[in-house]
Please model this.
Amino acid sequence: MGLLQSILGRTGRRFMKRKDGDSGERGRALEELRGLLYNEMHTSEGAKRQQQRICGPVVAMSFNFVVAVSIIMANKLVMGRVGFNYPVALSLIHYAVAWLLMALLRAFSLLPVAPPSKSTPFSSLFLLGAVMSLSTGLANISLKHNSIGFYQMAKIAVTPTIVLAEFMILKKRVSLKKVIILGVVSAGVAVATVTDLEFNLFGACVALAWVVPSAINKILWSNMQQTSNWTALALMWKTTPITVFFFMVLMPLLDPPGIFAFSWNLNSTSAIFISAIFGFLLQWSGALALGATSATSHVVLGQFKTIVIMLGGYILFNSDPGPVSLCGAFVALCGMSYYTYLNLHSPMESGAQTSKLLKLKTIEDGENHADTKTVDSV
Model:
């Protein structure tokens, strides 16, 4: 080594030191990149940031809208042509298949990491799973024992219930302008879709019992994702087994007898499996939309879907809803458009708070990563 240094001289020694320094800088840069990628893929904070970057409000709500329309067609095929008239059992199959798909993602390390168990008590997850099963089960019973018009009126009642519940539980206030617009939207949807109001005492009681769990379900899904580092898939992974358990309890109580006598052949099994895939996508897209927007916006999206389906039947299949229903649909669409405009152009206080939280999380992650590197180097 001394012979080499005497040959190269002072200039060669400086070159070798600079080369060693460049290698060290590249090594540190690669180490920082590796730590950043690890945080993005293997921490709940990184997974949450990744979901927010990839799936914003427009993408999430568009995804949910397309899947919601598709599953209507799939369920009509299952309950109509296939003859599988067991709505709670069908929901049970949907959630069981969803859990198996998420287990497959987890086996390949593609399922986002959940926050630490101490950050969210098990009671909150249990409540969310139970409310979800009650919401879905009671909705199916309400549709079975009520006319379409009465069922639609119950769905419209979810909107003011969410506004009232968020004010009472979360102290969340809605501006007077938005309240008026939501009232206009609900009135337009009612005029457009409610054509038969056949009253059934048992069906009415079920519909009223469904409204509160449906509103609480949406509020919990939205609030838990926006206030904690839960992603849609991670929260689904934790709550789906609880929902499946409650569906197994509700199925013999709510479904008609004869499910074990159903003819399981290739055609019926394929149709039910396709419906289950859409069920998983509907649950996932709904969770993404609730995490990216709010419970109220998600309800307005559901009303928009109802109006689009009605107008689609009028335009494509020559159905005749009548001039009154068409006027109601026009009023509802105008109200939805203005509500969207208000959400996009009003002061985004919640968005600013979210950005601050993300910046704080990023700083904390950087400090934690620097501490980790220091420990590793010792």
